[in-house]
Amino acid sequence: MTETATEGRKIDHVKIVINEDVNAKGITTGFGSYHFEHDALPELDMHSIDLSTTFLGKQLNAPFLISSMTGGAAPTEEINLQLAEAAQALGVAMGVGSQRAAIFDPNVASSYQVRRVAPDIALFANLGAVQLNYGYGIEQCQRAVDMIEADALILHFNALQEAVQPEGDTNFAGLLAKIEALCRALPVPVIAKEVGNGIGGKAAKRLVEAGVQAIDVAGAGGTSWSEVERFRQPSKTGQDTAGTFAGWGIPTTEAIKQVRAALPTIGIIGSGGVRSGLDIAKAIALGADLGASAAPNLLAQNKGGSNAVHAAISAIIDQLRISMFCTGAADLAALRQTPLYRVS
How far is CA 120 from the centre of its chain? Predict the structure, then answer.
């Protein structure tokens, strides 16, 4: 793939997510099926509830990650800077989009470099795991980390997206051994992340045994990247094939439960269709350490820049705080012990 083609794809993805309905079809996150029991006497001062946490050694003011979205093209630099400004102001984490474009062309590296506006945040670099089968290795992964002064590297797993993408890379054979070598060599933690079809317990266990230190389940029910790619397909046949998989994946709630059951102590990011602080509260009660979202932050940035992103995430944090107040959870440790009940 050429630099020009990679840049064009990045711009396509942003425009499609902003302008088209790319939500999963026929599948939900599962958050709507879970409910907390209301505590009429919480015995708490709501404004004293402690939302702070530590993730991979980094202190956060609230358990939230602005999930990986973009970079690699000139118009995306402003997006990432404005997302990072909000993250810095609120003390939450951020991941950048795939840095493959900047490995191809260092001239676009600035579109990922947000430390100038966010010196203190937990910041995660990002490359596609499949690129380890297409000429990438420890050197390229280290370059991605160094490029943005990252605290960890996300390896994203997007088998379905690659399968329905016009220019997709679909050789996923033998990746686990390469991931293990990378985890041993890289001086920062590696996070394994899906892109919206979910990581289940079995896959997560294999990844952690290879050295991955955290799992972002990125379950089904939110943005569907097969739907995003459907809008990029030049033929009706390609569009129909991509559309077939709009309901594919492990629902977010199920993925969180599976990974936590398989790996009681691993760091878990609950993402995939997270749309509120109540969703994050449920994700944490089900076993996640952080909640994360991508598309809502991109849509907010598109409407009103960094101020709109700040307002949107502030609302999510307020909703999380209210959820904790009304269940009597004074901190995140208490929230993790708060039972949920399921209504079919």
Answer: 19
Position 334 confidence tier, pLDDT thresholds 50, 70, 90: very high
The 3-class secondary structure across 102-116, one letter per residue, is HHHCHHHHHHCCCCC
Q: What is the DSSP letter of 331?
A: B
Q: Give 251-285 pLDDT, tens digit per residue.
A: 999 999 999 999 999 999 999 999 999 999 999 99
pTM over 0.85: yes
Say how many C-beta atoms besides its own lie within 10 A of residue 253's C-beta.
29
Kindly list the distances between the CA atom of residue 150 and the CA atoms of 115, 177, 189, 317, 323, in Å, as whole numbers in the listed order.
9, 24, 10, 24, 32
Q: What count of other Cβ atoms lies within 10 Å of the Cβ of residue 127?
A: 22
Phi, psi of 315 (to 5 degrees): -65, -40
Instruction: Report the SS3 class of residue 128.
Output: strand
CA distance 183 to 12: 32
Strand-pairing partners, residue 126, are: 154
Is residue 336 within 8 Å of 285, Cβ to Cβ?
yes
How many other CB atoms sit within 10 Å of the CB of residue 244? 12
Give residue 2's pLDDT.
Answer: 54
Evaluated on CA atoms 109, 19, 236, 222, the torsion sign reads positive
Asked if the model's pLDDT at residue 36 lies above 60, the reply is: yes
CA 341 to CA 319: how far, in whole Å? 19
Q: Residue 293 in contact with residue 68, Cβ under 8 Å?
A: no
Q: What is the pLDDT of residue 24?
A: 98
Instruction: Please work out, in degrees rounded to the nearest 5, the angle formed at the alpha carbon of residue 255 by the alpha carbons of 62 and 101.
Output: 70
Residue 96 pLDDT more than 60?
yes
Three-state SS string over 205-244 comes to HHHHHCCCCEEECCCECCECHHHHHHCCCCCHHHHHHHHH
Q: What is the Cα 338 distance to its own chain's centre?
A: 24
Tell me the average pLDDT across 295-324: 98
- Evaluate whether 291 touches 283 at the Cβ level (below 8 Å): yes
Question: Which tokens in the block code for residue 13?
Answer: 């993805």
